[in-house]
Amino acid sequence: MMFQWDEKRLRLNIPARQVLRLERSLSDVQVSLPGLEPQPATAYLCVFHVSGGLRVAIILHLHEARRLAIYLNREGPLGKDEACRVLGEANHFAETLGFMLGNLDFVRMPEPDRDRFWQSLPLMRGVPAPTGMAPDVDGKAADSGGAPVSPLKKGWTVAEMKIKRRNFIENLGRLLGML
Asked: What is the value of pTM for the model shown?
């Protein structure tokens, strides 16, 4: 398998400007991971810049366990051509788990909306974990001071709703085009 779950990584601590592609599952799927109870999860596929190239990650937001399961490509930083190949493998990996992913057209969003949207996702900040330490994608520990992480946002701004509506219509069009 080209992807490996790094159980020590609890978040993808990178700024929005490093994200080149972001996809999210169209619905939640019941998954079963070693050591955890079967539970619904949302899947994300993320391609992002790191020093030395690109990384491809599949992130499962496990709702009941209140954590992220981050699967990174084993090869480390990749060149553009290799990243395209690994992206196809990442899609296949997500599909074998039962997820259907939709492209969020993240890089096409205006920068302020992109930053706000990235901050609203659990990928960067993680979800409340049992410990006060949450290693980022490079393995460096980031101390949250043991303070609880703020809960998921309940309301949406007008700009966020417009982005969500546009993404929904585009994804619906793609889905209907496949019929």
From this structure: 0.70
Q: How many CB atoms lie within 10 A of CB 52?
A: 10
What are the two backbone dihedrals, phi and then psi, of residue 147, each rounded to the nearest 5 degrees? Answer: -70, 140
| Distance from C-alpha of 134 to C-alpha of 130, rounded to nearest angstrom | 10
Tell the residue number behind the tokens 């900040």, with chain if given. 125
At 155 the pLDDT is: 62
Q: What is the pLDDT of residue 28?
A: 94
Residue type, 143: D
58, 90 Cβ separation under 8 angstroms: yes
pLDDT at 48 over 50: yes
pLDDT value of position 168: 78
User: Each residue of 110-152: pLDDT tens digit?
Assistant: 988 999 999 999 998 888 655 544 445 554 444 433 334 444 4
Site of tokens 């084993």: 74
First to last CA, the chain: 31
Calpha distance 44→29 (Å, rounded): 12
Other C-beta atoms within 10 Å of 142: how many?
Answer: 14
The answer for residues whose C-beta is within 8 angstroms of residue 118's C-beta and 6 or more apart is 15, 16, 19, 106, 124
Question: What's the CA gap between 82 and 61, in Å, rounded?
Answer: 26
Burial 144-167 (b: 16+ CB within 10 A, else e): beeeeeeeeeeeeeeeeeebeeeb
Say if residues 1 and 93 touch (Cβ distance below 8 Å).
yes
